[in-house]
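Section 3.1 - Work completed
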Amino acid sequence: MPSIFPPGTDPTVMSCFQMADQDGSGFIDDKELQKALSSYNQSFGLRTVHLLMYLFTNTNIRTIGPKEFTAVFYSLQNWSAIFERFDKDRSGKIDSSELREALHSLGYAVYGPVLELLVSKFDKTGGLNKAIEYDNFIECCLTVKGLTEKFKEKDITYSGSATFTYDSFMLTILPFLIA
């Protein structure tokens, strides 16, 4: 059973979802979501789309309904504003210092080797530019957000430490690696 649009949803969001839902099922799949999101002057890779779907449904099912689509849509608007705010040189890319500031504004303190690894991982040139573009910025933020939330579930005393079994660890990180 498909979800419904939250009260007060912008009619543009509803229209976008309905155009993407080509079979009228009340759900859109990953490729339909990719097409819908990419119609707003920005291309999104399937990996980013899969991470969005995973984080907004907490499942590996590759379909979403109106409620989840609305949440994705509004979240992307927020991330777009953050990207623009921290892309200080207006290059269309965020370097490591800009990324650190952007993640800090979202409540994530990422420094040193972890920050450099994120930039290297999400740089489309394999680390040559030492900067990430918008869609990869979204993927990076989703990864940091999702892994941090999963870590916090295990760090119940907020000590900065957590204990995982091997299976629990694998189940925590694999959705972010193979989305």
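Second construct:
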Amino acid sequence: MSASPLLEVRDLRTHFFTRAGVVKAVEGVSFSLEKGEILGLVGESGSGKSVTGFSLIGLVDPPGRIASGSIKFEGRELVGLPPAEMRALRGKRIAMVFQDPAATLNPVLSIGQQMTLAVQAHGRASDAAARDLAARTLTRVGIPDAAARLDAYPHEFSGGMRQRVAIATALLHGPDLIIADEPTTALDVSIQAQILAEMKSLAKETGTALVWISHDLATVSSLADRVLVMYAGRIVEAGAVGETLRAPRHPYTRGLLDSLPAMARPGEKLNQIPGTTPSLLSLPPGCPFAPRCPRADAVCATDPPDVVTASRLVRCHHPLEAA
């Protein structure tokens, strides 16, 4: 492990200041990421995963903003960085792959035009050189006859192919960090497996680090090196992916795993975590998971401690026994 991590996040708090009150979407999140490492960020919808990703790349729109905390990329503080300097990093050194490529690709520009513009946004390159780089990058993510496909439009591609275009666009400048926000959710299993293999190969061969945001624990278990489990804007468990998912110590992580269809016996009802995620405008005192937790008692009305071992962090008054 290097002396200085590629990315270091400390006590990040991203809030949305609405008329109804302050929505604390990310509250006290801390983690680090090494070069070439793949970090999985998991949790239910509304847990703060995507807002964490948008915060890292400076794409939180009003009324949201980073209220406090630190995001350091190669030791450089990104919080408060002037917009022009952030734009110089975004796309070149730090890239993002969004969940829905149909919403991020311009329908009236060809794939080649869009990728050429992305290349030229961060350096002087002729149209021919930019198109050549775009074709080589599309080939890298498995798009056949890439040079000819540059003249196609997004609607002429399948969902899986559009997602490959989005990933290729993120790879154009050889970024040091890619943030992927549920990029394979809408894809069929075979295409998903191919993309996961490509991303693992990318991290291994080039040293690109990945933050993989997903609600799919199976995907994260096959891809990531470490996993952060988020609930109500907080990290409730963190550790090596294999150890954490084989023997979870937080009741919420256990509940997520028990809810997987593979955990149910044929003919039986699927397990589920009771209740719903709390409103971030009116969180309960203490542990936000307490109203849904089978282990909760009176002490859970106070803030849970961080139970830290050599390889695991668990934020809970009553963690499950270590296996």
